[in-house]
Amino acid sequence: MGGITAPDGIRQKGRKYENRHNHKDEYSEKAAVEAIVKKIFGEDDKENEANKPYNGKAVWISDKNGFYTKGKIYEFVDGRTKHDLGFTIGGYTLANMKQSGCFLPIVE
After folding, report:
1. Phi, psi of 32, rounded to the nearest 5 degrees
2. What angle do CA 68, 70, 76 make, to 5 degrees?
3. Phi, psi for residue 47 in degrees, rounded to 5
4. CA 101 to CA 68: how far, in whole Å?
5. What's the rounded Cα separation, in Å, for the pair 9 and 6?
6. pTM above 0.70, yes or no
7. Which pLDDT tens digits describe the chain residue by residue (108 residues)?
8. How many Cα neighbours within 13 Å face the side chain of 32?
9. What angle in degrees, to the nearest 10, is found between the helix axes of 29-41 and 43-50?
């Protein structure tokens, strides 16, 4: 005997049932796809990494400022470094180094 079982448990022949949800889904399909793409390709991690305080070494490549020496390597800890006058300056991230074009991070 053919047929399908309805959600209410009654077997019926020739009747089609659809799976309908009565709740509102606040998480759109577009947002889900964007989150998956970011997770797969690491875009979210790259953005976060670029905005974290820089740790490492970078060389000063600009003629703009009298506080740094062109070609000198400076070490950064938690986005802070000491300039040539001995004062500590903070707030350096990969993003703002790239934007200013004054420091060139050294990849070790």
Report:
1. -65, -45
2. 55
3. -65, -45
4. 14
5. 5
6. no
7. 455 555 565 555 555 555 555 555 566 777 777 777 777 776 556 667 788 999 999 999 998 878 899 999 999 999 999 999 999 999 999 999 988 889 999 987
8. 5
9. 70
- For the chain, what percent of residues have pLDDT higher than 70? 69
| DSSP per-residue codes, the chain | ---EE-TTS-EESS--------S---S-HHHHHHHHHHHHHTHHHHHHHHTSBP-EEEEE--SS-SSS-TT-EEEEBTTBEE-TTS-EE---BHHHHHHH-SEEEEP-
Q: How many residues does the chain have?
A: 108
The residue type found at 37 is V
Distance CA 13, CA 4 (A): 6
